Structure formats: C-alpha cells, structure tokens
Amino acid sequence: MSLTDLKHQLRKFDFPVCAKEALNRIEQLLVGRVAPSNKQLDIAMDIIAEFVFCEVDRRSGRRTAGITPLQELQLIDIICEYLSACVNDTTKNTIFLSLFGGMESQRRLKILSILASMAVSASSTPVLLAVGVWLQQMGCSSSQSLQLVENIIRDHFFLNTSNQNTLKSLANTAPQFVSNFITAVTELYMHDLQGTKKLPPKNLLEVITSWVFSNPTLCMSAQLNAAALPSGSIPMAAVTPLAGLIHWCALAPLYIDEDSEMVEVLVPIKRIKIENERDHPTLKTNVNKTLTEAELYTKLHLAVLHSLRAGRRNHGPPTAVNAQHLAGLGPHVQAYAHQLLKRGIKLQNDDKLQDCLDRIGQAVQVALANGCVYGNISNLLAALDTLPENRLLRIIIKTHQQTI
Amino acid sequence: MNPQSKSTSLSADLNNFIYGVSRRNSQNAPELTKIGINLLKNFPAARDAVLEYFAMVFHDAVNVSLNQTEYEADINVNGSLESVSMIGPELCSLGPSWAPFIAPWCISLIMDIATKKSNIPNVTLQSTEPVRVLLDMTTQNLTLLNSDERAKCIDMMLGSWQCSWAVGWVGRAEPALVAPRALALPADAARAVFAHLANHPLALAHVRAALVDMFHEAIKDDSKLEKRREVIPYLLNLASKSDVVLKALTQDIELTLSWEGMDRLCSVCASQRHSPAWEGVGPAALVALLMHSLCSVCGIVLSDSVQKNQIQTQDKYLLQKLEYESLFSDKNIPLLTSAAEESSVVREKLLTGNQLERYSLARVLILVSYNLPSEFVSTISYLLQYSRNDTTLAILVRIISGTITMHIPNDSPDINMDTERHQNFIKTGVEYALRDAMISDTEIKRCFIEDKVPKDQKTYLHYYCLNIIKLLRWENSNRVGHLRTRPIGRAVEASLYRIGGALQDYATLLRVRPECTMASLDEMPTCHALAEVLDRVDMSGTKAPPPSVEVILKVVQATVKYFFRCLHEKDMLDKLRGVQTACRLLRKLCIHSKLARAIALRDLLETAMFREERAFGSRSVVANTVTSNREWANDELLIHLNQKHGAITQLTQSHTSVFHAGIIGKGVRKQNGADNGDGIPPILTTNNELLMAALMSCMDGNSGVVEGATSVSLLLVELVSPDVMYNGLPWPDEDFTKQVSIERELYMRGALENCAVARAALRRAAAARPALCLASALLRATAATLLHRHRALLDRHSQSAEMARERAALAELLATMTLGQLLPHPLSHMLELAPGLTAGEIVQVLRDCLWNYTRDHVPSPALFTCDATGLHWRDPSTCKPPATYTDTLRLIIQKRISKLGHLYPIMFLNLEKETQ
Q1: Residue of B nearest to A113 (CA)
Q2: Do B45 and A151 touch (CB under 8 A)?
Q3: Which Pfam family, giving just one, matches this sequence (chain B) (predicted)?
Q4: What residues of B are in contact with residue A155 (Cβ under 8 Å)?
Q5: Across the interface, do A122 and B14 touch by the CB < 8 Å criterion?
Q6: CB contact under 8 A, A123 and B41
Q7: In this structure, how many other beta carbons lie within 10 angstroms of the beta carbon of residue B824?
Q8: Which end of chain A is more exposed for a tag (fewer CB within 10 A), N or C?
Q9: Between chains, do B14 and A73 touch, taking CB under 8 Å as contact?
Q10: What is the DSSP letter of B46?
Q11: CB of A263 within 8 Å of any CB in chain B?
C-alpha cells in the first residue's frame, strides 16, 4: 500500500480516531519477521507526524501549532489503550520507540512526559515498562531522560503527594522502569561540585529507599531482564543506579545539616556495623515511624549494600558498578575536607567526614568483595588513596592493592 | 488497597473526562468539573488539559453572566456558573507547589477574557461572578509565588493593554512590584494601570513611592543623561493624563520639590530645555500640576520664584488661570481645596513671606474665601489678631474687598444681598478675632516661663485693638477706596456688645491673671486701646442702626469701670487721656439715650461713693460695720461704757448715747483722733473734678443738664439716705426732727460730709436749678444736725476743731442753698454773715431764717420758672422773703453793727428802698 493511499484512508477520520487507526497501520508496517525497510520507516514516521501528533497540516503539509492539551489527553488515552492492549512486548516497544524515539521533538517529549506521569498515576504496567525501555535506550543521563524524570518527580513528589503507596508498589510491577528511573534520578541530585548542593526531596528519598530496601534485586533488574527490542536495533547497556546511590549515601553526611532538621530524633541512631548487618539483614524492615533524612540515608545505605551483594554475578564480567563512577566521589570529599582545613578543623575529628569515609569504605569493600565493580579498579584505589585519612579505608585499600 | 482496581477507576475518570469534554455542553459542566478536579489531584500530568477545560468553562460562564439579567442570577440555573464556583476554591487551595502553574494560567485566561470582551466596559466585566473568582484566584496564587516568578507573571500581564484593569486589581496584592513596572510603560498604558491600582489605599502608597523614586533617580547627578532627559516630561505627561498619578505626585511633592530637589531640577531643566522630549513641558503642564498640588508646594515655588524670574511669570499665569477657573463654581480645584485645608499655613505665610508671596497668597486666599465663607472669616480673624504692620493690614483690606467684589458686577441686582452676607462674615471675623485674642491672652507663653518678656510686650487683645483702630482710621480718612463702604466700622459696630464686654473684663479689678500668660501683663494699655476702639465707632445710629439697649448697658458699664481704672493711672497724661476718652464715650452714649444716662450716672456715683471713695479722699459713708479692725477690750466697748451712764442710755431716740459715747464699733470718740482725719474732705481735688466732668458729660445736650442734675440729686438722696421715709421735699417742724428723725439726720449728715463726691455733686446739682430741690432731704439733714450741734456746743467748745468743722459745714450748706436759689436775696447773705456769728446767734439764724423759711417755702421745682431760653430760675423780685424770716438777721446785724455793719446795706437797704 502506498503512502498516498494510506494517508487517503486515514484522512477520512477525524483526529482522535485517525490516531487510533494510524497506530494500527504503523504496527502493520513495522512489525514483522524482518526488519522494516527504510522506506517503510519513513512512511511510518510521516504517518506518526501527521495523524498521531498532528504536527503536519493535512492539506498544506506545513508544520502546525500541534494539538491542544485536551487533544493531547485524548491522544495519550489512545496510546495507553493501544499499549495496554498489545500482547507482544517487542511490538509494544517497537511502536513506542518509533513514536517517541526521535531525539529532537520537544513536543513529543512533553506528551511522553505526560504519558509517563499518567502511567505512574494509574500504575499502568505495560506503559511503564515501555517507558523503562525508552529510558534505557535514550540513556538514563541524557537530557531527554532527565527532563522526563524531572517531570515525573514534579508531578508525583511536589504536586501530588498523596500517592506514596501506589508509587512504592511500582517496584514490584515495573522494576525495569523503577531501576532506570532511579538511575536518572541520581543524576539529578548531589551532582554539582560548586554552588548549592541540590538534595532530593524527602518524599522522593523515602520512596527510593523503600524501593531499594524492599527489593535488593531491583537495582539489577534492568540488566537482568533484557528489553524486548525491535529487530535490528542496537540494545543500550543498562546502567544500574547503585553507583549513584553510593554517591548519595556517602555524601549525605556532608551535605545534610542535621541541626536544621525539624524532626526530633526519638531513637538514638545506632550505627550498624557490617558484621551485625550481615547477621540480621532484615532488622528494620517494618519501620512505620517517619525517619529523618539522615536516618533515611542510613537505611538507604544498608539497602544499597544489600543490593550490591545481590549484584554478584556467577558468570560473566561484573556489570553493577563502574569503578570510574565511584572514583568520582573523590573531588566532592576533597572539596569538603578543604573547607574544613580552611576553617582550621582537624580532619580526623570531623564526625561527618569520617562518617562519609566510612560509608565509602563499606560500599567499596562490599562491591569489591562481591565482584560488582567493573572498569579500572586500581585507578579507583588510587583515587581512594588521595582521600583524607580513615582507618577502614586504609585497610580496604591495602587489602585490595595486594590482591591485584 | 489493590492497585489494579484503583488504576481502573482512575482511568475510568480519565475516560469519562475525555469523553465528556468531546461532547461538552452546559449540562455536564459540573459533572466534568468534578472529574477534572479529581484528575488534577490524582493525575497531575493531566493538568494542562484540565486547566484548558476550566478555561473554557470560565469563558462560558463569563458569557452567561454577561447576558444574564439581574433577576435570574441564580447560580444553580447554569452549569458553568456552578462549575466556576467549584473551581475557585479548589484552585485557591492547591498550595504553593501548584501556584507556578495556576498563576500563569489565571493570568493568560484573564488576558484572553479581557481581549475577547474588550468591547464591554471594564466595570461590568469586573463585576461578573466568574471574573471575580478568577481575580481572587490570581491574587491568591500570586502571593504563593516567589518574587521572581511573581515579577514574571506581572510583566506578562503588563504586556497586554486590555487587561490593565486586571493588573490594577491583582496589583493590589503586590503593589510594590506593579507600580515601578507600570511606570516603565508608555503613558497611556500606565495611566490605565494606575487608575485601577489607585482604588486601593495601600497600593497608592506604593505608587507614590515609585514615582518619588523615579523622580529622584531622574534628578540625581550621576544618572544617565538620556534617561534623565525623558523622565520629567514623561512624568508631566502622565500627570496630565492620570488623575491618580497627579494626586500621588502632588501628595509627595514635598518630597520631590524639596530645596535641594528644586535646585537640582533647575539645573537639569537648564541643560535639557532644548531637547525634543521637552517640548511638552511648557508652563501649561506645570500649572496644571501645580493647580492640583498642595498650597505648601506653592509656598516653595513662590519663595523660590524670588530668585528666578521665569517662575515669577509662571506664578502670575497660575493665578490668572485659577481666577478664571473659579468662575465656574462647580469646578473643584485641588489647589484651592488644599489651600483651604492648610489655610493656617497660608495665613502664616502672609505674615512672614516676602512681598510677592504675600500678594500671590492673598489672591489665592481671595479665591478660597469666595468659595468658603468660613475661610474668609478665619482669615479676617487671623489677620486682625496677628498683623503687626501696615502691609499685612493692607493685605487684609485687599482680601476683604476682593472677596466682596469678586464676580459681582456692580449693577447686579443681588449686590445688596451679597454685600450684606459678606458684611456678616466680616462681623463674625471681627468677633472671632476678639474672642480668640482674649483666649490667647490666657494661654501660657514660653517667653514668660523663660523670663524673656520683651519690654513693650502687648497683650493679643491690645494688638487686635491697634489693628482695628488703624483700619478705622483708614476708613474714616475716606481716602481708601476699598473701605468706602465702612466694612470694618460696621462690623465693629455690630459687635459692640463683645467689645464692651472685653473692656469690662479687662477693666475689672477682680480679673483672673494666670501666671505666665499675657493676662498677667498690665491691662491698662489694653483698656486704653479698647476704649479707643469704642471711641472711634459711631454709636449715634446715624450711619448704622442704633445700638440696642443691651449693648448700651454693656458699654456704659464698661466705660464707667474704665473711667475709674483711669483715675488710678500713675502717669498723669495717660490718666487725663483715659478720662477724656471715657467722658467722650459717655457723652456719645448718653446724648441719645436717657437710659444710658441713668445707668451711667448711677454707676458713676455709686462707684465713686462706695467702692472708690478713697480715690476721692472720702471716708467710707458706712462706718466699719462688717469687720472690726482691732480687738477691743471689754471696757472699751460702747455697750459697756454706755451702761455706766445709767438711765440715760435707756432713753430711746436720745442723742446722749451717740453724742457722748462715740460710734458703735469704734469705741469712744477720740478728741482730734488721728483716724478721723481732721475736718471735712476737700471737694476740689483732681479726681473729684474729673468725676464731675464725667458726670457732666453724661448730661450733655438739650435740657440734659437739668434732667441729669435732677437725677443726680435723686440718686444722692437714694444713696445717702438710709431709708425711704422722710425723703420728701417738705421740711417739717424743727422740733419734729429733734424728736423723731435726729439719728437718721445725723447719719445722713455724716455720710454726706465724709463723701467729697456727694458734696461736689450736690453743688453741681445746685448750679443746675431746680435740681437741688430734690435733694432737700440732704439739706434738711445738714441743717437739722447743724442746729443741734451748735446748740449743744453753745459756749462750750467755741474754738475746738469740732466747732471749726461745724462752721465749715454750715458755710457749705449755705453756699449750696444759695447757689441753688433756695435762699433768696437777703437770706443768701447769711453765708457772708456766718463766720462772724457766735454759736448762739448761728442757732438763732439757722432756726429762724433758714429752717423756718424753707419749712414755709417748700423747696420744690414749682418755685422755679422756666424762661424763654429754657433756663430755670427764681426771680428775686418776686420771691422776697417776708420780714419774719429776715428780722432775726437784721437784729443781729444791728446788735453787732460794728463788726457786721458792712453787710447791712447789701442785705437790707435795697429791701427797704423797695418797701418804702
């Protein structure tokens, strides 16, 4: 069927219906045993632009102002319906990526953001999984991904704050999405060296902690379950959120001003030692009381350590944590230490710094011991060596330098 | 909760919404709105769509409520209105994290509505329910934003000229942000914004602050040249377009046009005058501004204009414009209003300012006074009180005449009515000034506390009087055209009562004189001035209606008081001048009014005899009956002494108790006692003469002297005689007096003798025949007592001081009666005869010649005939006393011819010649 015929047929319908029809046609065009030809791809893209997103005027072929928010909502409804009805993951991902896979269209990205956010609201697993694939394919730290994630955060952690339970349950229904989502989130916060340190909002931190804590394999899920991609496409490697989370946990003691936290600490914080932790891994699973941010980070740290243990792979090279990524902690810690020195405080006496270094040491030790680290490990150890003096860290570095 | 079931219900909502919206009508609007609100909460991502739908609902609702008549304004009738009422509170309560979405949506919706409905008046639009809800929402959400976002939103609104009203409305929440931004707009747009913003008092303050900032920025030395060039023309332009800006600008003009401000402004003006942007900055623009500004500003401008000619012409232009404008009575000129509000400042400036200021302000005040009579009155009052030189008085004259003659052509029929009205105002002004001056006199002044009173410090009332006097002088000189109608004179005449009252107040000796006030100063100068005011006023009733009885009484009493105060003046010149003024006043008052005369005479005599007797050398008529000036021992008291006389004291009406024991309350009479003084107080003293002059001045005019003297006689009798019995004209038998009325006679004699005033007055009465007749009781009392005394003193104390007194009294009695023509020809020479007689002879003469004659020829006015000239007299030729009354005299002379012979021919020869 030629392009003009297709268009001619589709033009018989008005907007919401034509989009629905267009999706079916695209499915017919793209999904098959063999990879679609370039021509087929072009036709699909044309149809998508004209009938799905209405970016091109039907008569003149010029670019239009697009669709109104209400039409967007209709479109999103149709897409949702289509995706939910799709039985084949590959088909679903193929259509999804061809709809939103383009790098350039800000308008489509906006619609995608709304779609993703609504899928989160409605706990629509098929859509979320598709979004997870999209995140992975776009790269979790790409600007589009970050934009999408920011939108979701704003919608669900600032505007609507009453849906925490729904969000927590996502870890079970759409772990791939959650994993990629966390990876992107860790890119957003605590990342700039200079200026104000942007900290994640508390409810986001709570949800992430509960996700990671309740499901140690969550972080690895994107890697464990390979995405069902259209034939002929190149799968992108999934990046686990572990390195980012280690960042957070390590830097949290430095950045959180404990005095400013208004929540009163009722229970004295008990520092959990690694040995104890191994003996009682589910010590604090059912915590109903609200935790302070510091406590949350502590809990998250524990959860990350658990996840690292779960990240051990019995065959194949380690994929969980990039050594380079871990080494990136160095400058943050050193900047803080530098400030301390400026103020004339001894590094050994600063509890926060020591706490930070302890956490780094713990994480590195667990990661190395479980064979989760890939990349240049000796570089990592060298970078760690430049950090301020810490007993645990020193022991770990010595141990591992000998083994290499 | 099972996530699966929840998700399905949510998508059901979503589906319903999408389906509903595609088949939108007014019926399903509330339903859809409910779903939309739900979606908003649970599907934040759907907010754009939901808000778009809400915008549609708002548009519908605006349409509905614009087409709706008042009566069917029931919310439930229409779905979209109902929806709006649901949406409003929901969107307001979403919280700060939603505000960044809601606020811009609200603003663009307002702009949409405003643009679509730009053909509908703002007021109608604003009063519709949906728009109000929308504005509330906007305001609410704007307050939740942080300042950057807020500024962005407001900038967004300012971009559209159709919704300037909305900016004004919403800007009330954030005037500090809106006002400076609006100033950056072109004048027309800024005007619209300010017009709406200014209904809010708080916002107005910010507008003012923004304007002042802008102005100061503009005249700052270091500001950028091109920027500064634009600002002032812009402000003037804006002011001419927007009342609000004008008001704001003028309210703060004190800040903007301070001294330094003016200086810098001048320099800026000088350097920029020729640039094109300044073309509009002519005098007209500035005058328009000034016209609305406060008068304090004008003060600044005026004082500044002394140095700068160009402003001077400006000023003239302004005044002309004002005068022209006020021709239209319905116009309200802010400058005048403010001048009225700050009239006290303006008036003060009148006194202290330079010439230009004074005359300009006078013109302003004329305009103000013309519209506001109360200001007219208080201006007059103020200037009368505080003017200290001729210039300011001249300004007062100018204001008075200017106000009266303003806008009234001379041939207008209602000119009389109007001048009458103004005359009333002037009168009120004069009265207020008087009252206020008197009040100010009782206020505590700093200079007294600091003890820095200038030597020639005058009371406020004094200054007031001096001003009035000067004005009256101008008026009377007839050389001042403005005063030809005698406005001041008439006003003063109309307020005579108060001025009289003031004089009375200040002249009274019992006046309260609070410390540290003007009232503690010597009051006499003030009194003199007040008297002069009264003196200069016409009270005859020829030029104005004659003063009422009340007024006359007040002024007469005041004048009498003043007269006596003047008698006590130390400085002779002041004293004489004051007395003269008082006399003139009395004359003026009495000449037309018998009532005034009666009052004046009585007051004068009473006061002179009973209150001021010491001034005339008199002793108190009534012996000290109230207080004893020393403690008396028991055996000194008359009552005890008299008991020693045994039975004598028991006789009633007996003279012994008095003659030999003394005066009750004073113990035994002391021979030649120092406290009695020796002899009779003299008549011929300055004060006495002055008083007589005053009395006489009350009797001026046609037959006034006789009438006056008559009443003086009657008054004397009334005042001296202790009771009304025996006050008649006839003289009884001499024995009768001895038996019945001797105590009374003694008392009267004493009273009369001790009172120089009474005696002097008696003499005056005697001169004005037949007035003396009416004082016959007094003469009788003297005669009777003389008889008794002489009889008692026979041969005993012929040379004592007492005797001398008796003789002096006799001489005076004879002189008075002779003068009054009560003793006709031969008898009249008893006066010359008396010194040569012995006591016994005197008794004889008194009884036979004086008493008996008078007894038989009752001294009555009937004896006196009135001749053609109106003079009353007794023709000696017709009233020769019969021989019975003269024989005693003749015998005595014959008996002592050697000594008294020279009188015989005078007394009897002619007589005999005639009888022969």
Answers
A1: B45
A2: yes
A3: INTS5_C
A4: 44-45
A5: yes
A6: no
A7: 21
A8: C
A9: yes
A10: G
A11: no
Minimal C-alpha gap between A337 and chain B (Å):
34
Question: Is A159 near chain B, with CB under 8 Å?
Answer: yes
Q: Which residue has the higher pLDDT, B402 or B164?
A: B402
Give contacts of B47 with chain A, Cβ < 8 Å. Answer: 159
d(CA B293, CA B290): 5
CB A209 within 8 A of CB A300: yes
Nearest CB neighbour to B44, from listed A16, A72, A117: A117
Measured distance CA(A285)–CA(B839) in Å, rounded: 151
Residues of A in Cβ contact (< 8 Å) with B51? 69
Residues of chain A numbered 168-197 and touching chain B (CB < 8 Å): 169, 173
CB atoms A118 and B17 under 8 Å: no
For the stretch B840-893, pLDDT in tens is 888 888 888 888 888 888 888 888 888 777 788 887 777 788 888 888 888 888
> Which phi and psi angles does B662 have, rounded to 5°?
125, -155
Least confident of A21-30, A355-364, B238-247, B552-561: B238-247
pLDDT in tens, B500-543: 888 888 888 777 888 788 878 888 888 888 888 888 888 777 77
For residue A340, give every residue at least 6 positions away whose Cβ sits within 8 Å of its Cβ, in sequence order, or none: A347, A350, A353
Are the Cβ atoms of B45 and A16 closer than 8 angstroms? no
Cβ <8 Å between B48 and A80: no
B608-620 tens-digit pLDDT: 888 887 788 776 6
User: At which residue do the structure tokens 């009889």 appear?
Assistant: B791
Q: Judging by DSSP bridges, how do beta strands B872-873 and B865-866 pair with one another?
A: antiparallel
* Chain B hits for A116, Cβ within 8 Å: 45
What burial letters (b/e) apply to A14-44, b meaning 16+ CB within 10 Å?
A: ebeebbbbbbebbbebbbeeeebeeebeebb
B491 band by pLDDT with thresholds 50, 70 and 90:
confident
Of the residues A160, A166, A167, A169, the best mutation for testing chain B's interface (the one with the most B CB atoms within 10 Å of its CB) is A160
SS3 B866: strand
What's the per-residue H, E or C state across B541-607?
CCCCCCCCHHHHHHHHHHHHHHHHHHHCCCCHHHHHHHHHHHHHHHHHHHHHCHHHHHHHHHHHHHH
- A&B contacts, CB < 8 Å: 74
DSSP output for B282-323: SHHHHHHHHHHS-HHHHHHHHHHHTT-HHHHHHHHHHHHHHH
Kind and range of the H or E run holding A374 = strand A373-374
Question: Model confidence at A67, in pLDDT bands (50, 70, 90)?
Answer: confident
What are the residue ranges spanned by the domains of chain B? Answer: 10-173, 395-406+413-592, 593-623+677-915, 634-665
| Total Cβ atoms within 10 A of residue A138 | 22
Q: Which amino acid is at B349?
A: K
